[in-house]
Amino acid sequence: MRLMIAALVLLSSLPLAAAPMHAQFLPPDDLALRKEQPDQQQLLQITEFSVVVGNQRLSSQQPIPVTSSVTVRLKGKPLNKGATIGQVLLTFDAESKSLKKPAYDEGSKTLSLNYPLGQYRTIMDLLRNDTVYVQFLTYPNGHIWADLHTGAVRAR
Predict the structure, then answer these.
(1) CA distance 84 to 109
(2) 135, part of any domain
(3) 102: in domain
């Protein structure tokens, strides 16, 4: 009996697996993709951003394709222990029917997120007017979630 009580006391003193920070900003998990605790969780508060509008002409191909890209580079401060993201690159695509999945490169500490070009104005409004966070979660089942979100803002 003493052994059982000691085991219960020990178990009750262990920290419970915490929900992801900023979990309140995740959409409903209707498909139960996020039912397990994340393998990796990174949360970054954005402190600065820059916009690069590029233009590229590959002259070695015929006909000569001209491409133009829009990239937003975000930098900020990590908000959770173990977060290693140094920068976030947002790429906007006007042509693809599907977007690339979020990707984190540990070597460069860069998180790459892809959005449709139609989201550019919304994201720029957020960056200019609100405190913005980037959240990146990976799960044991292979599911990846990444987002940009503001904190809770009181309606005026």
Answers:
(1) 6
(2) yes
(3) yes
